[in-house]
Specification:
With about 400 residues, this protein is of the alpha/beta class. The protein is built from twelve helices and 15 strands. It has a seven-stranded mixed β-sheet, sandwiched between helices. Strands 1-2-3-13 form a four-stranded mixed β-sheet. Strand 7, helix 8 and strand 8 form a beta-alpha-beta unit. The longest helix has 24 residues. The relative contact order is 0.17.
Length: about 400
Amino acid sequence: MSDKLMAVYNRAEITPVRGQGVWLYTASGEAYLDCVAGIATNGLGHAHPKLVAALTRQAKTLWHVSNLFPVEGQVTLADKLCAATFADVCFFTNSGSEAVECALKTARRFHAVAGDTQRIDVIGFAGSFHGRTYAAINAAGNPSYVEGFGPRLPGYVQLSVDDAEGIAQAVARPTTAAVIVEPVQGEGGARALTGEWLQTLRRLCDDNGVLLIYDEVQSGMGRTGRLFAHQWFDKAAPDIMTTAKALGGGFPVGACLATERAASGMTAGVHGSTFGGNPLAMAVANAAFDEISSPALMDSAWASANRLRAGLEEIARRYPDLVVDVRGKGLLIGVKLVTNNREFMAAARGHKLLVAGGGENCVRLLPPLTITAQEVDQALDRFDATCRGVRLAIAA
C-alpha cells in the first residue's frame, strides 16, 4: 500500500482488478463471491451491460457542463423518482453524504423562511450513519466519527429508537426542525424499524409541525424488496428523503427528494453543486433506475433475499456458539456474532466470500439484487464453511 495515501482505511488484503455480476477477480484469477457490492452500491452487480452501454454512449457526447446549464438527464430521472415516490422535486448530488447535507439544509431552511427561526434542532438516533461530512457525522453522533474534529455542531440531538417517551418529548419541543432516521439501519447493525414505529413517528411530526427525513441511501433502490424501504408501510412517507449508492449502480450519484412544501425554501442561490447531476451520472442512473425498478428484478431479488435469510437462520441454529441473531430486511442482512466480526470477515475472505462489517458486532451481506439462487447457495456454503473454520480455530 502506498505511503502517499492518507491512512484512513483499513483495507482488505486483496486487490480486485475485474468484476462480473456478483463476482470479483484478482490479477491472479482468484474469484470472490461479492456480498459487499461496494457497500450496497453495485445493485446490478459488476459491469452490468446496460450500465456499461449507457456510460459508453454518454462518454462519447458530453461529460460535464455544470448546473449553469440544463442537463436533460436530470429532468428524466427526477420525473421517474417523483412518479415512484412521495416526492415533488429532486436535487442531484455526487454521494449520499451530500444528499444528507441537502436534506438537513432543506429542513432548516423550510422553517427559516416560514419565520420559525428558532427551529434548528435535528433529532437523530443512536446507531445511525448518515455519511462522513461534518453535518452528517453530527446528525448521527457516533463518538468515533465526531471526536477530534472540534466542537460538536449545535442543534443535533441523538436518542434511542426504543425511547418512545423521549422521542415524543423531543419532537414536541418548539426548537425542533426535523427528525432524520434510516428505515433500516445499515452500518448500525442492519436493524429494520417496524411500520408501527415509522407511522408513529410520522404522526408525531405532523402533530408538531416537524419535518421527517428518511435516509434511504443504503436501504433504497430495491435493497429491501421495495424501491424504498418505507414503501412497505402505509401512512409512513417522509417529507424529505435521501438516496444514493445503488441509484447509480456503482457510478457516484445521489439525490435529495422532497415534497414541494418541504422544499419551499430552496430557492435560487441557496444551494448548489458543481458536479451533481452531471451528464455521465444521469445517463448511468437513468439506466440503473429502469432496470432496478422493473417488477421482474424486484421479484427475483425478493426471492433471493428470502432464500438467503432462511439459509442464514439455519446456519445460526447450527452455530449458536457463534451466531446471536439474523436481522435486517431484503438483501440488507446483518448477522450478529459472538466472535469478533472483523476476524470473521477475514476468515470469510479465506473462503472467497466477501462480507461487510456493521455495528453491534454484525457482519452484513449486501449482494447485488441480481444474485441468482445458485449464487445464494454458494454464499451460504461459504458462510457455513467460515463458521466451521472459526469454531475449529476457537477450539484449538
